[in-house]
Amino acid sequence: MTISAAAIESVARPFGPDIWTVEGDPVRLLTIPFTTRMTIVRLPGGGLWMHSPVAPARARALAIGALGELRHVVAPNRFHNLFVGPWLEEHPDATSWAGPGLAERCPQLRVDHVLTDEAPAAWREVIDQVVFRGSRFIEEVMFVHRPSRTLIVTDLIQNHDPARESWFWRWIKRWNGILAPGGGVPRDWRATVRDREAARRSLARVLEWDFDRVILSHGLCIEQGGHDYVARAFDWLSPVA
């Protein structure tokens, strides 16, 4: 089935050269509402790299199929796995990649490779990565798409849109430090960081990257000034080692 360019862009929003964002359905975790977003990158060989997949609804599947062949499905931490399985069922030849701890938490999920601090050959030409360490609760793999100068973050920075929240959740998310325009690192995640030196080393690696924009899985993305935004979000870790 063919799909028009306008229909593709209504689902897969261009965020730069060979990178798109796709809005997912709202979800709730421990009753807390979250908007969701996944990222698609077209690799130099033409295959697609999918980060933090949302549900493969028909319109999304058609739009992504028009962009290229899905080659890699990435679950960047041990909680962003909900729709990995459905995408792999539709694309059994795709390779699955998981952040630390996901394979142990979900042994029924097909995990072909565990992500590390080094980008694999499959995408290192355009994407770099680092495991953000230090938390006893969750370690997340952050990525940078070098051609578009875009950092890709899942849960460690959030920037929830107040226009989409009730007064109650606006209050809760403001307290937790994740309500736009002042979003950042969730206060509850900060409390789990016991190895601050490891976190500082991870942050130093991230801040070495050349990026200006930030795609967030939860909330409003940062269209410009992203490097300074991330540095401010983690200023509670200062000084950076």
Structural summary, described in words:
This protein is of the alpha/beta class and 241 residues long. The chain has a single domain, classed as 4-Layer Sandwich (Metallo-beta-lactamase, Chain A). Helix content is 26%, strand content 24%. The chain contains 8 helices and 13 strands. The longest helix is centred in the C-terminal third of the chain and has 13 residues, at 196-208. The chain starts with a helix and ends in an 8-residue tail after the last helix. The mean pLDDT is 95.
What's the topology here?
Layout: H1 5-11, E1 12-16, E2 19-23, E3 27-29, E4 32-34, E5 37-42, E6 48-51, H2 58-67, E7 70-75, H3 84-90, E8 95-98, H4 102-105, E9 113-114, E10 127-132, E11 140-145, E12 150-153, H5 167-175, H6 187-190, H7 196-208, E13 213-216, H8 226-233
Parallel strand pairs: 6-7, 7-8, 8-9, 12-13
Antiparallel strand pairs: 1-2, 2-5, 3-4, 5-6, 10-11, 11-12
Helix pairs in contact: 1-2
Number of helices: 8
Distance between the termini: 53 Å
Largest sheet: 7 strands, mixed
Model regions low in confidence, pLDDT < 50 over at least 5 residues: none
Helix and strand run: HEEEEEEHEHEHEEEEHHHEH
